[in-house]
Amino acid sequence: MAEIINGFIYEKDSDGIVTVTMDMDGPVNAMNEQYQVGMARTVERLEQEDGLTGVVLASAKSTFFAGGDLKAMLSVAPGGEPEQFEMIESGVKAPLRRLEKLEVPVVAAINGAALGGGLEICLACNHRIAWNSPKVSIGLPEVTLGLLPGGGGVVRSIHMLGLEKALPILLEGKHMKAKDAQKAGLVDELVEVTQDLVSAAKSWIRDNPECWQQAWDRKGHKVPGGDIWNPKVTGILSAAPAMLFQKTRGLMPAPEKIIDVAAQAVTVDIDTALRYESRALAFLITTPQAKNLITTGFFQMNSVKSGLSRPKDVEKTAVKKVGILGAGMMGQGIAYSSARSGIEVVLKDISVEAAEKGKSYSAKLMDKQISRGRASEDDKQRLLGLIKATDSYQDLQDCDLIIEAVFENIELKAKVTQEAEPFLAEGGVFGSNTSTLPITQLAEVSKKPENFIGIHFFSPVDKMPLIEIICGAQTSDKALAKAFDYAQQIRKVPIVVNDSLGFFTSRVFSTFLDEGARLLVEGLDPVLIDAMGKQVGMPVGPLTIQDEVSQELTRKAAETHRNMGVLGSKGDNSCNIEVCERMISEFGRGGRYHGGGYYEYAEDGSKSVWPKLYELYYREEVEMPREDIKERLLFRQVIESLKCLQEGVLRNVADGNVGSLLGIGAPQWTGGFIQFVNTYGLQRFIDRANELAEKYGERFQPPAIVAETLAKGESFR
Q: Are residues 579 and 625 part of one domain?
């Protein structure tokens, strides 16, 4: 007879094996208050059970266990470390420690995702059996949310696998497939989905009645690969902080804490290490970095992916045939991404040769995957068979989506739109892959502007996860839904914005380049400018990225905007435009792929500042606090993001945060440019922005939306 203990179904069979099936309130099992009470009571019942021969931990949900209660973590205020430590120790750790000290075998039957806290429960078991299914996902992803596996994940994984094998799992936070998890040592046994997991677990218990003591509780246990006295382990721990700093630049406390706890795990006894781990997690929960990463990286990301900005009353569709105009860098990437998702592709250029060259890009990408064992020759031929390279508009007949990916020239875009649009299927949508040009203006040549939309891809298309969808003045909900569904169909994350020059991502990104140019003109060392950009957490400095984007592209974009009569977005990028135009007109410095820009590039891949740059701009006597430099580069982008929200270019906060992380390269620790303001503090942000405005110019004036939000006692949600 089954018994329910606070969401845990407790059932003992005739062999004395108890199956505990987690079936908590809500769609998933999570490490919340219900879990803490249920697990504690269940373990207590197991400790008192007569004739107990083994325990199987299973799940009634499609996932095994989803992990920690992130909403509860977000509510923890600064200074809440003592309460968190107590909760982790008594509510999470103590029941698991008692579970693994039961003098009977305990087996985890993993039927789906076991991530974070879910895997930590499994690590407290003596044996882990999982279905060999794509639905099974194993890992400790806490580091990606600014946390660490504080339910025993750090300490137990190191005692199971050794420091060298466990550290990458802990620091990278990757989700592993069942076979990969078995190879890594986190799963002991795989069974096919046709087999009953609980039966397989019971079978193992009957065959291994003496396998109840964890390795780390046995006398004479040694950490695989050695403890702190092993020179190799000491070497890993000595080198890890420096290697980590190269990646995080000291801006992410979670990886540092993981290394700290890992060092304790190979130094002190298991229980002391577990307590140290609890203190580390209690600290991380209160940090702004964790709150930012949880808010955006989990809740807002899931909200965006779930269709936050998609029209709710439009039926979901799938693109069957897509036409792509232009087989250059962007077009070839769009073709590959579409074909990879099984969509028929027509790749059109001015000649068959140009189109075939674009198609060959897909072949090269598939060859790379084949060389890495991730695809077969048959996979390659199937994908290439979906792409038709052509110079004829006739081949676009019946495309339900056509995307033009030609140069940022309004006349050229107008020409190809008019020539291709007649071949759209009934109700088909025409998309423009433009990074800055207003969609409403581009749609003026369309016969059906309600079916015209902006679909802004990022380069390289096959790697960049974001698509920025732009609605023009007449874009219909049906067209928006079609574009949104297509973005998800090709495994991209779509955000939706309203029409404006530069939209959201390009408009905000351009302020980073502009502020870098202003710092240069003011006399700062270009090396220092780029270094400060990286120190604030941007992938590279503003001068380096301008060279990559190219001064020539910036010049052409400015020229196009002048010709369109739309010069000047809401943000002031005049300084960067002037510097780029001067670099080209006076010195022929058009960027990295035009012979060099701010930097000179050697054949071996190294670079050095173009010497003339120091003559033109550098002034040795100019001094500026480094904190000011960093915050100028960051605040320009944050302020522009807030302006986009204030003006309605952004439809919601989540799209702004997700878009800035995935499309602009916003520092991960910020949680996105708008979320940054929440944990920085709205009043503090207003005060600091005003200070910067007084010292460096009115572009740093805080937008009114900050004071308005503060007056309501709210934050940006």
A: yes
